[in-house]
Amino acid sequence: MKLKFLPILITITGLTLLAGCGGGPTGDAAPKNTLAESQGCISCHDAASHDGTGAALTPGTQKPVVTEWMASTHNTANGASCRDCHGSGYLHDSTAASCSGCHSVGGQAVNPLKNPDASNQCAKCHDKVNPRPGQNDGYSPLTANGVPPDSTTRFTHFSTGKRANYVASNYRHNCRQCHNPHDNTYGEEQRGQWADSGHGNTRGLARTAQDFKTRGTNISLDKNIGNNNYCVRCHTSTGFINFVAGDAFTNVNALSDIGADGLPDPNGFRSNAPEYTTPFSGPYAGKIVNSAGIVFAYKDTSRETTGCNVCHLDIRSDSATNPSSYSGTLRKVAVATGVQIYYPYSSTGYKNVTPVQFDTFNNSNLCLTCHSGRATGKTISEPGLISSVVANKNPSAPNIHDFAGGAVLQGEKTAFLFYTSPTKYKFTTQHRELNADGNGPCITCHMPMVPSSLNGSQIHSHLFSPVTWNQDDLNQDITEIISNPTVCSGCHNDTFQSSLSPDKMNLLRKGFRVSLLILGRLLPQPFNKPLTGNGGWTGTNSNVTPNVTYGTAPIPALGNKPAAVYTMGANYDYSFLFNEPSSYAHSPILVRQLIYDSIDWLIHGATGFGTSPVDVYAAIKSAPFTTTTKYPANKTGLFWNKTDVVQGEILGISINKDYASYTDTPTYTADRDAALFYLCKNYNTIPITNPAQCERW
Question: What is the pTM of this model?
Answer without folding.
Answer: 0.88
